[in-house]
Amino acid sequence: MTDLPLVIFTPSGKRGHFPVGTPVLTAARQLGVDLDSVCGGRGICSKCQITPSYGEFSKHGVSVAPDALTEWNSVEERYDRIRGLPKGRRLGCQACVQGDVVIDVPPESQVHRQVVRKDADTREIVMDPATVLRFVTVAEPDMHEPSGDLERLTEALQAQWGIEAVTVPLSVLSRLQPALRKGGWEVTVALHKGHRDTVHRILDIWPGFHEGRVYGLAIDLGSTTIAAHLTDLRNGTVKASAGAMNPQIRFGEDLMSRVSYAMMNPGGDREMTLVVREAIDGLARDLATEAGIEARDILEVVFVCNPVMHHLLLGIDPVELGQAPFALATSNSISLDAAELGLATLNPAARAFVLPCIAGHVGADAAAVALSEQPGQSDDLVLIVDVGTNAEILLGNRSRVLACSSPTGPAFEGAQISAGQRAAPGAIERVEIDPVTKAPRFRVIGSEIWSDEEGFAEATQASGITGICGSGIIEAVAELRMAGLMDARGLMGSAAQTGTERMVPQGRTHAYLLHEGPDGRQILVTQGDIRAIQLAKSALYAGARLLMDEMGVDTVDRVTLAGAFGAHISPKHAMVLGMIPDAALDKVTSAGNAAGTGARIALCSVAARAEIEETVRRITKVETAIEPRFQEHFVNANAVPHATDPFPHLGRVVTLPEVNFNTGGGAESGRRRRAR
Amino acid sequence: MTDLPLVIFTPSGKRGHFPVGTPVLTAARQLGVDLDSVCGGRGICSKCQITPSYGEFSKHGVSVAPDALTEWNSVEERYDRIRGLPKGRRLGCQACVQGDVVIDVPPESQVHRQVVRKDADTREIVMDPATVLRFVTVAEPDMHEPSGDLERLTEALQAQWGIEAVTVPLSVLSRLQPALRKGGWEVTVALHKGHRDTVHRILDIWPGFHEGRVYGLAIDLGSTTIAAHLTDLRNGTVKASAGAMNPQIRFGEDLMSRVSYAMMNPGGDREMTLVVREAIDGLARDLATEAGIEARDILEVVFVCNPVMHHLLLGIDPVELGQAPFALATSNSISLDAAELGLATLNPAARAFVLPCIAGHVGADAAAVALSEQPGQSDDLVLIVDVGTNAEILLGNRSRVLACSSPTGPAFEGAQISAGQRAAPGAIERVEIDPVTKAPRFRVIGSEIWSDEEGFAEATQASGITGICGSGIIEAVAELRMAGLMDARGLMGSAAQTGTERMVPQGRTHAYLLHEGPDGRQILVTQGDIRAIQLAKSALYAGARLLMDEMGVDTVDRVTLAGAFGAHISPKHAMVLGMIPDAALDKVTSAGNAAGTGARIALCSVAARAEIEETVRRITKVETAIEPRFQEHFVNANAVPHATDPFPHLGRVVTLPEVNFNTGGGAESGRRRRAR
Lengths: 676, 676
Known about the structure:
Two copies of one chain form a homodimer. Chain A is an alpha/beta fold. Chain A has five domains: 6-109, Beta-grasp domain (Ubiquitin-like (UB roll), Roll), CATH 3.10.20; 126-207, Ubiquitin-like (UB roll) (Roll), CATH 3.10.20.880; 222-354, Nucleotidyltransferase, domain 5 (2-Layer Sandwich); 374-410 and 532-636, ATPase, nucleotide binding domain (Nucleotidyltransferase, domain 5), CATH 3.30.420.40; 413-526, no CATH class. Chain A has a six-stranded mixed β-sheet, with helices on both faces. In chain A, strands 30-29-20-21-22-31 form a six-stranded mixed β-sheet, with helices on both faces. In chain A, strands 2-1-7-3-6 form a five-stranded mixed β-sheet, with helices on one face. The longest helix of chain A is centred in the last third of the chain and has 25 residues, at 527-551. In chain A, 53% of the residues are buried. The A-B interface holds A 140-144, 146-151, 168-170, 173-174, 176-178, 198, 314-317, 319-320, 324-332, 336, 340, 357-360, 621, 623, 626 and B 140-144, 146-151, 168-170, 173-174, 176-178, 198, 314-317, 319-320, 324-332, 336, 340, 357-360, 621, 623, 626.
């Protein structure tokens, strides 16, 4: 046994013996205890606050004397006077070990343990951001040993932080000399090192100690919507989130129509590149304003997106993605200056990182889902469906992961639907239809009250009832089927056939009246709406089946619905509709915006960037566009399941009425038409 | 002895045995014979042309049979038909060894042996440019094994050229897919790898085989003039050279007045940065036009300049260079995108390299002189003086190299001189004054005829006689002293004192009439001109003396005059004037524009870039501005040597007349006033 004092850290439980006089911060570092420090132990940043405990600790087998640490010193006194230290706290860089001691590291001093909170579950990731702040003291120039200010800063970073080499953009180099002099040869620098970089890059410099304001943007760039999360790179917390429509919609609603636009219009790809970059820049500006931060403090941005969005973001003509063999210009992840993407709102030296693509039709968004959901770490076979205008589908477990994408179109996002709209206050998001009376009840976004409950009118007065969003139309179609108003092929009956005046004639077809406003404005579910949803769900289902074929399985253990919209889908209705393969209802969960979460993880961790590159290499890519079985599955998946389908998994047993609204032609066979 | 055929290459004499069927190019590579190839042995580039010799070679001890190489094949035939092969030539990649053979590598097929021609001597450097062209065949995309086009290009570069990793700017990435398809999966790429880079950068891409057009600019950015050399990066030859005045002159003639301008005028540094960048861009445009090349084919630019020019080029406020301790923002060499310097004329992805600075007053131009003249490789002690508005002075040999700079001002470049002008046609560049008649004779730039020779009037009719350039004023002042018209302190005598009407009164002083035109316009050497030259030469001499003090020597073995202007100085007159320390006249040589040569060497060789960085670290920097002995030397050097000075080295013995034109005050002592 050594005679040296024993130092025990809680909550980690790490312990070790250290010489008398060892600063607590030094002991923590040597033991690998997660204790923050930005100023490098100079008593400036106060990030290394700790709480010593005194007395008997039978659990740890130590007795801590009142003089187990050195006395409160002048640095701590000054800090406490100027900025205040909570009672009982010491600065870990100032308090030195004198005897056995138990030291608690409060959560705010633990920088590396962070939780990325997702909608449905939480997950812990190790903070390992590419961009960090470092406070450093630089030697003054000496005429007799001339060297540049940058070279002395580099030496200081080496000596004080172990940074081997740095590069500096001109925009920072030109501010280096005034910053050093204004800061009295103490400066804070923002350092960036991506997972493939060999040197650090100085992104910004501030005189003196710059309280940690360093932010990043995680952006999920979808065909229809752009979602951005302003994230504090010190601890991974989201300061603000915002979404916007992708302005490229005016060039085409789905990916292929945008590719066509680029093919048919010289310079069309440049147009689309410009508008989406402007929209992203605007989002960044809005987020900075909302969070009350300087946009200059945004030092990094991470993108996930499908391949066409990826190419258009980077300014690459996506024409090759519109035709076999669907060759990506580049599939690896990309690191570049955000300024190259025209993101002028951010710090001029801000960096951008774009996750790798998996294949010509399976993009960085799918990679981000894989990063967030980690199918390759799953013991059971999980099907992950990221629902959007283009669906990304992953199927796998520890042994193998497959991926494909499926062109569902924008119907699931409320587009191509007669009363469709974005998920916003006033949109119908939940629907039930009484199987007996055929009357609907619904809920709109912004209120928890059902339309047949008291207070509904008041609760929806402000927003109105403006349309149906994606989850609403899915529930409406599934409920129409369950209420016997729609047959297995997706045909709705007339008022006479169904016995309800809710069915109103519309040309040669019928529509279901979901709601009529006081002004007479009707919200209908039309036969065209049902066709659009059928096409979308068939594409989704066919993609999933294709992967199951490839894996050689008929069932999956779990289904995860992802995507901003996936989070809101009712698993029961999705299954009635035949969007996803059958699974036990309690095994169908939502992962929220998994792609966005993947972007945030990559923003917070360079290790995760390396991980996803490796993961992407191991994923087996399946190309739906050239696979004959995809068409076959697609056609077979068109039906909405028949009465002979049991739904034992659906909590309650749902028996679908055996109706047939065929208005002519051959009889519909009762045979199950879905693929096996 | 092996039975394998013996292959002997001339002129290198390298030899080795190779299996029958070995391509000549392969044999050359294995032996380290310098045989070019751009296309990687595909018979496209024709760079590997060789000339086989047949018959008896007693010198080499071999007999070469007519069938020593495989027969002329279809690739060679096609090449010869389309582009033509000189008689007797073969393509080294096609012709294969069948028996003992002697193969001559013609000079144009030897890429790595290149001569950088300097004004006074030639020097061989190994071509090792950072930027090269590479032809490569890329695998076509495969839908079932999806990978990006860039990733397949990268694999091809690895397999075909051993390039480990590449990065690609967006501007190139966006052109990658069309280039690959247009070129039928064959492309030529311009690759760049600086001496500190860990990966290659793709600067440009062309479909198919792109005949080697890859150029660089070597730029010597001086306070007064900018000199640029457009260089072929394939072989180091200069395609065109051009010079321009530095437009910053309007903000101040010398460095310190420009620093003052920046200090006194907010944004003044930005103004100066903008005008010099524009001037450089204009020079690049002019050079491309003159050489008949596309400016887009200029892929690299190398700069040498003094520290103030260095900072202003990079957009760094030079204020710190105007005051002790003269701290540079950065002293190391810098690699960056040329676009960051606003050089929009060049290729959008062109790279820029700025040589390292030695100290706050000793810049990248001095580093370039060290790279060109290599004082550290000299056995004897060499003094190198790069004469300009700011003089860079190096003193050293194998054991030690010292450097300083000295603020000579622009007098040596014809500025601050009453009839001074740039070195251009019409400027008086050579002067002699008859010691007896006191009459002058001179020569002007653009004519070899002296003014007292027949045909002078005709020869100078076009240019006229417009003024005196730097070398002319130096000769004039030295000749005035030798003719007894000026005393040791630099005072000129009156017509009465000197006995010649050439001396004309000018206020309280006298001026020497060098020339009077038919229109009565006079070119005079005034007392003010002499004072300006005295100040300049004193500064230069004092700097050299300071280094000699530091080295502990009284004499040097050799003197090298460098600088665009240094090349034109008459060593004899420089020594009479006391510009430089005494040395044997045949030991005073000109190195031409050594800084510009250094820039060209750095442009042609990454190894040279590493070398100069290492050299600069080893050079001892001497700061003239704070060294009291500099002032002392400066004051002592003011005199123009007295009659008691012997000039045994000057070829003929020059005896300076003992005159004294003191117009009052204390008697001038005959003691030599120059420092010892």
